[in-house]
Amino acid sequence: MGDQSRLCSVWLGSETGILKGVSVTHKRAFNFCNTRELSRDQEIRVLCWGDTTETELLVGSVDGTVKTFSTEKGIFTEVRRCGDPEEGCFTGLEVRNGSVLTCVDSGKLRVWKEDSPEPVSELNAGKNVCKMRQNPVQPNRVGTGGKENGLKIWDLERPDTPVFTAKNLRDDWLDLRRPHWVRDLAFIQNSDKVVTCTGHHQVHIFDPASPQRRPVLEAEFGEHPLTALSLPASGNSVVVGNTQGQVALLDLRKGLVRGRLKGFSGGVRALQCHASQPLVASCGLDRFLWIHSLEDRRVQHKVYLKSRLNCVLLGSQDLQGGGEEGAEGEVKEEAEEDDEVWDHMEQVEEETTKRKSSSSGGGQKKKKKD
Fold first, then answer.
1. Which of 34, 93, 134, 195, CA to CA, is 20 to 30 A from 79?
2. CA torsion sign, 49 to 283 to 143 to 190?
3. Cβ(236)–Cβ(251) under 8 Å?
């Protein structure tokens, strides 16, 4: 298994609880699982790298456990409980100075040390948190947001109160209140600004350095809830996706759509831009891993992975190869976890009917086909 896992440059978490690795250079996909019996509570919700060398992968499941996966050995090496399913599912998983940060949708944001069974610190980010993200430049700062729970930025060294709390949006032209619904967020490089996407098809930029706590930029894309975003390495743009499988590249300076990425046939659940290449990986309900070029917006790789996918994580190495991949017979998935289910299903034969016209034209009879 270690030989297989070392080939993988893209990792995905599925609803079935299987960790999936994809090697786009070798056109192969692999399944990794730490149990023979899968259940719904093992669904993978969040992924992150456990170290800077990318030899460990942290996997957060619905049952509240965080599993450590060795990309060198190809096996799960550790399991620890970092949440209670009654508190909600994971909405964020990060690593900070050897500590693990977790957040669940009830708002419990906790810091875990390696050898401690209990969190060393905890804060309440409010109810219905949809996403927690860490500032890559300032690892002690994280952002949270959710449904009727606007953007908050926290300093984990002073967790009593947030260092920034977004103000309610201005009322619309009918003087009606505009609700909050942050679905994803990211810290913009080389600035203090944060970009969010919402369940009301909006993209907002907040600037904690300015006296204004409302968005300094507002834009809209489509008519459906936005579910995920990611920032390309080039800056000045953001990739967003929605529940209808519409993905677009937006200009962060003017809020205009630069172009759309095509091919999707289901809602997008996760996006990640490559750290150095003009590529974006995405996944969701259509069970495909998509990799698009951000330069010409064409599909570079397309891999069918059988299960609905919740999260995607890219390695820092270059994603080699070009052209659309994943057509029938091109990408092989090693573990066929769905086949056993279909093999045990009872085959149903449908009785068909055939109409026959009488030669006299006086009527029609129905005859069963044996």
1. 134
2. positive
3. yes
CA distances from 343 to 9, 119, 336, 346 (A): 32, 45, 12, 8
Q: Is 8 helix (H, G, I), strand (E, B) or coil?
A: coil
Interacting residues of 235 by C-beta distance below 8 A, sequence separation 6+: 188, 189, 190
pLDDT digits (tens, 9 = 90+) for 185-236: 999 988 889 999 999 999 999 999 999 999 999 999 999 999 999 999 888 9
8 Å CB contact between 315 and 47? no
How far apart CA 306 and CA 336 sit, in angstroms, is 9
Share of the chain above pLDDT 70, in %: 86
| Residues of the chain falling short of pLDDT 50 | 322-330, 334-370
Q: How far is CA 366 from CA 192, 354, 357, 360, 362, in A?
A: 75, 6, 9, 16, 14
pTM for this model (two decimals): 0.85
Q: Are 238 and 250 in contact (CB under 8 A)?
A: yes
Contacts of 88 (CB under 8 A, 6+ apart): 104, 105, 106
CA distance 256 to 294: 16
Say if CB 218 and CB 255 are below 8 A apart.
yes
Q: In what order do the strands lie in the sheet with 226-230?
A: 226-230, 237-242, 247-251, 257-261
Which tens digit of pLDDT belongs to each residue from 67-110? Answer: 999 999 999 999 999 988 889 999 999 999 889 999 999 999 99
| Contact predicate 111/95, CB 8 Å | no
Q: How far apart are CA 224 and CA 246, in angstroms?
A: 9
DSSP three-state, residue 124: strand
